[in-house]
Amino acid sequence: MDISHIEHIGIAVKSIEEAKKYYEGVLGLKCYAIEKVVDQKVTTAFFKVGQTKIELLEPMEADSPVGKFIENKGEGIHHIAFCVNGVEKCLSDAELAGLRLIDKAPRKGAEGLSIAFLHPKSTFGVLTEFCEDKNK
Ligand code: ZN
User: Fold this and answer.
1) How many domains does the chain have?
2) What angle do CA 75, 54, 40 make, to 5 degrees?
3) 108 C-alpha to center of ligand 1: Å?
4) C-alpha to C-alpha distances, 1 to 25, 79, 90, 121, nearest whole angstrom
5) Ligand 1 centroid distance, CA of 79 (Å)
6) If you measure from the C-alpha of residue 81 to the centroid of ligand 1, how many angstroms do you get, rounded to a whole number?
7) Where are the alpha helices (DSSP H) in the chain?
8) CATH code for the domain of 82
9) Cα Rg for the chain, rounded, in angstroms?
10) How far does residue 8's CA lie from ligand 1's centre (Å)?
């Protein structure tokens, strides 16, 4: 696989508005984008930390992937995303290695990135995302 860096860390929060008081008010990071990903029923807010981003994830409703995550585990780290070259190749390598894929093919995520997830059951408990900016 061709992984360059950690693209972002996804953090589930009940309220982006509340969480911003910490990320902006205390840490001094700047929220540079808020985006709704309707098919995931989630609102995302992005902060840059060097070349890595923090992606806050606020569920639009309780009955959604992030809503269920918060209900089961509470707020906290939801996933880690690697910036890769060739997300399709990463997926086929992962599949060959016997890992469980959530996405068999890349789909469109926030910021127009091409993304795909591996199941945490086969990645030592960490929901893992590959993402690639194909617009570059
Ligand atoms: Zn993500």
Assistant:
1) 1
2) 65
3) 11
4) 38, 19, 6, 20
5) 7
6) 6
7) 16-23, 65-73, 87-96
8) 3.10.180.10
9) 15
10) 6
> Which amino acid makes up residue 18?
E
Q: Ligand 1 centre from 120 Cα, in Å?
A: 14
Q: What is the secondary structure of 13-29 as a DSSP string?
A: -S-HHHHHHHHTTTT--
pLDDT band at 130 (very low <50, low <70, confident <90, very high): very high
Domain with 109, as residue range(s), is 3-132
pLDDT of residue 121: 95
Q: How much distance in Å is there from the Cα of 25 to the middle of ligand 1?
A: 23
Which DSSP helix (H) or strand (E) runs through 117? strand 114-118
- Residue-wise pLDDT for 25-72, tens only, equals 999 999 999 999 888 899 999 999 999 999 999 999 999 999 999 999
Strand order, beta sheet including 114-118? 31-37, 42-49, 52-59, 3-12, 76-84, 128-132, 114-118, 107-108
Global pTM value? 0.91
The number of CA neighbours under 13 Å toward the Cβ of 61 is 6
